[in-house]
Amino acid sequence: MNHFIGLIGTNSDNSTNRKLLKFMQQHFSDKASIELMEIRDFPLFNKPVSNQLPEIVQQVAQKIQQADGVIISTPEYDHSIPAALTNALNWLSYGIYPFVDKPVMITGASYGTLGSSRAQLHLRQILDAPELKARIMPSSEFLLGHSLEAFDEENGLRNPVQIKKLNGLFEDFQVFVDLINQLTNAHEANKEEAENFDWETI
Fold this sequence. Notes:
This protein has helices at 16-27, 55-66, 83-91, 117-127, 160-180, 187-196; strands at residues 2-8, 32-37, 69-73, 103-109, 135-136, 142-144. The chain is α/β, with parallel strands linked by helices. The protein is globular.
């Protein structure tokens, strides 16, 4: 059984993206284990004087490194991802490279109609950066709009059409993970490129 990290892409206490990942954790418990991880305790990114990273950053990086894949659920603020998620990804690509060649599925929930579509597009661009180099599942948007009304009292998704789509995307992600985790021949070279990349010398 695959083990995934569900990265909650916000520090909001009442996020519907956290609800979405909790639903996935329970709904797919017979297919994979999903361990939810918060980013609220990450300090504000500032290039450390030493190479010593905050303990919370090291812990999350290690969990991501050991996982078969990562599911990130992001809200949308000002057509982009939240500052807290940007901050976490800044830390997780500074001196450590857990996302290199890591299979990633992106989901998103928002109060409006579009379900964080523009934020998801932006997140794909960020995860493709030289210091992250994640393997993002293509053509796989799960956009949960009007998310305040999307869940019932037991945190289940109300709309069977949404559940059907999420089921299909999750099955596709498992196939994607199995495929990507076989493509390891260039992993060390990709990791070395990420480690040696320097924006000041390109």
